[in-house]
Design goal:
This protein is α/β, with parallel strands linked by helices. The chain has a single domain (2-255), classed as 4-Layer Sandwich (Purple Acid Phosphatase, chain A, domain 2). The protein has helices spanning 30-44, 76-84, 98-107, 112-119, 162-170, 225-228; strands spanning 2-8, 12-18, 49-53, 91-94, 127-136, 144-153, 181-184, 190-201, 204-215, 240-244, 252-255. The two termini are 27 Å apart.
Length: 256
Amino acid sequence: MQVVSLDIPSEVGYLVPLGDLHRGDTHLTQRGLDKLKGYLDWVMARPNAFVFLMGDILNVASRSSKTNPFESDKDEYAKSVELFRPYARRIVGCITGNHEQRMFKEFGFNPLQPFCRELGIPYCGYSSVLRIRVGKRSDRRNEFRQLYWGFAHHGTGGGGTMGAALNKKVKLQEIVQAMDFYMAGHDHQLINGTRNVLLPHKGKMVHQRVHYIDTGSFLDWDESYCEEAAMAISKQGAARLRFDGRQAHHDLHVSI
């Protein structure tokens, strides 16, 4: 597990987790690509916005996978590098997904490792802790007003219902505790759940709101294996995390 540190000196900061693109799958249509580029362009237009890649960037179809390797785009790797290269300086990290792990389990090689090297972004393996400081103080050297913590994993298992999908994200806190947010994808749903917990802080118990984020997908549902399996139709897109560095307390807002 790698810790990714991100300092945002602005009063407000943003993070957009992007995953489950499955570049190479025929169901990543121009509609999905345009939506993805919309998020990337939104980030590039704001100096206080960043991206974290959630895995399954590539499709890596095989003879035993649900998608047919003979129907996949043979240039999926090169096109993925080309797609993200203009935005690489805003990508703070990348974790692997189960699709890239297909190649690793078969050949001991994960294509996201050279992908990250080409783009100059951190490859974080299976999971990552994100340490995000927001709102640099002008009166003190290297001090920020707010510190946020998050945990990212690609996700595992099924999640046929919204409740089951969200439960998978809640269970991540059994691995790493006291995070402000937990995020994963894999089931192609776009959901945000919240609840308050009590944590000890400076000799007393304080309330902290925790977000559990299902990070979405960009694939079309029609005529895909999702339609074949009668899987739920989920909203295309990604979540946007907004971190406030102005307040005397935590203020994390998630838009979907």
